Amino acid sequence: MDRRRLEAVLSDLKSGKLTVAQAMDRLQGLPYEDLGFAKVDSHRALRRGYPEVVYCPGKTPARIVEIVRTLAGGHGLVLATRASPSIYDRLRRSLKGHPVVYHDVAKIVAVGRPPKAQRGNVLVVTAGTSDIPVAEEAAVTAELLGNRVERLFDVGVAGVHRLLDRQALLRKAKVIVVVAGMEGALPSVVAGLVSVPVIAAPTSVGYGASFDGLAALLAMMNSCAPGVAVVNIDNGFGAGYLASVINRGP
After folding, report:
1. Residue 80 and residue 54: Cα distance in Å, rounded?
2. 3-7+29-112 belongs to which CATH class?
3. Cα 80 from Cα 52, distance rounded (Å)
4. Considering only Cβ atoms within 10 Å of each terminal Cβ, which end of the chain, N or C, has fewer?
């Protein structure tokens, strides 16, 4: 249940449109709903501002559908991340009363209608084109959470003039997500050019000694440029979510 729905229930209770029993019936999903195999956190939107998000790997398609259906009953929007096309098709066929959209590069299914983008700007930057899937996961997450998002792809340090040519775009952003693999140097460069928070997202892109993104992760954690926060390897969702929290403000 989101804040608006709760306020509507309380308002209807106060005005006499609902009895106490009816109001309790509508609120019975708080603080969570026990599905046996999962305890769905229906209170999270009130507590954190955003509803629970479903991470698909490791779950059966039937359980994904049941969790999403439970969340969709109380929220305007539900996200399912790392979702395959077959999971999208299963959700689309099972939730016919809800808009279901698949963002294929980001591998995110959005069930319901996202809020109108009112906050901005989040800028998502990549070092190379191989980093785009993680960047799209970050960008789409931020967009679906109500942020205006711009993208700046393929401006890594191997040709840093490509980045320096877009400094006006960098300085327009309220928060910047920088996605990079290989040696992971780009977040430090970006943070040295701007006064806003930079979220570094290492990717598993790179040759053998990149150790599936560990080299980029350690490089980003050791950035000499202040104002850089680092999420886990390939965690585009975490980067986009954090960008939205920062952009939302207190």
Report:
1. 5
2. alpha beta
3. 10
4. C
